């Protein structure tokens, strides 16, 4: 672990200790610190914003209740991601993954006059990730998006490291096969083509 990761984990451990003592401000701090990461991670399981928010709330309710039980066998981030993953699977079993029509949710506006190549690259990769199974997307997000090592991912997903390696291998192979075809339809890649 890097110094920054060690410092972040030490801070998170202190917040968990304070939560175990009933400190709601510590819970709010941990929630704010993880909300964005969990949204991104859970978006690999489902695109339903209602389920993502429900899962995050359930995750932190469990973290609040179990803060005193944290043994320190892993980083706090691994523990929280594991809770979120299990809550996400449970929510998907209960609600399914069908999109919800909600006309009250404003769509994000993307400027069209000055397209951002980084946004286009993210969209291209996102389309590639959609071609993977949910387990493969989660493994890719945890390893490449969140920076977890294979042992952490195995702990989060509660499966053997070999299973994580296999999912990552198959995800890479599938991405290697689908991304070139997706790039052919992308204007950013057409501009740079020979």
Describe the structure.
By secondary structure, the protein is an all-alpha fold. Helix content is 71%, strand content 0%. It has helices at residues 3-20, 24-42, 49-66, 76-95, 117-130, 134-145, 150-157, 161-184, 187-191. It is globular, with a radius of gyration of 19 Å. Mean pLDDT is 83; it is low at 100-117 and 190-194.
**What oligomeric state do these chains adopt?**
single chain
Q: Number of DSSP strands?
A: 0
The low-pLDDT segments are 100-117, 190-194
SSE pattern? HHHHHHHHH
- Computed CA radius of gyration, to the nearest angstrom: 19 Å
Outline the biggest β-sheet. Answer: none
Instruction: State the distance separating the first and last CA atoms.
Output: 42 Å
Strand content: under 5%
Number of helices: 9
Mean pLDDT: 83
Put the structure in a nutshell.
Helix content is 71%, strand content 0%.
Task: Write the topology of this structure.
Layout: H1 3-20, H2 24-42, H3 49-66, H4 76-95, H5 117-130, H6 134-145, H7 150-157, H8 161-184, H9 187-191
Helix pairs in contact: 1-2, 2-3, 2-4, 3-4, 4-7, 5-8, 6-8, 7-8
What attributes characterize this protein structure?
194 residues; mainly alpha; 9 helices; 0% strand; disordered C terminus; sigma factor; RNA_pol_sigma-70-like
């Amino acid at each position: 672990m890097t110094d920054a990761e060690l410092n972040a984990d030490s801070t998170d451990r202190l917040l968990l200790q304070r939560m175990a003592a009933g400190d709601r401000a510590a819970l709010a701090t941990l929630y704010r610190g993880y909300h964005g990461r969990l949204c991104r991670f859970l978006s690999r399981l489902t695109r339903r914003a209602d389920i993502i928010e429900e899962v995050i709330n359930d995750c932190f309710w469990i973290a609040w209740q179990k803060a005193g039980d944290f043994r320190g066998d892993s980083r706090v981030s691994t523990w929280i991601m594991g809770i979120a993953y299990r809550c996400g699977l449970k929510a998907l079993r209960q609600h399914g993954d069908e999109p919800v029509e909600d006309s009250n949710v404003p769509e994000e506006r993307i400027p069209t006059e000055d397209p951002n190549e980084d946004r286009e690259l993210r969209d291209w990769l996102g389309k590639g990730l959609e071609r993977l199974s949910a387990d493969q997307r989660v493994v890719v997000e945890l390893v490449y998006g969140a920076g977890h090592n294979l042992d952490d991912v195995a702990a989060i997903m509660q499966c053997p490291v070999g299973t994580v390696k296999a999912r990552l291998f198959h995800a890479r192979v599938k991405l290697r096969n689908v991304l070139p075809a997706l790039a052919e339809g992308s204007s950013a890649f057409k501009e740079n083509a020979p």
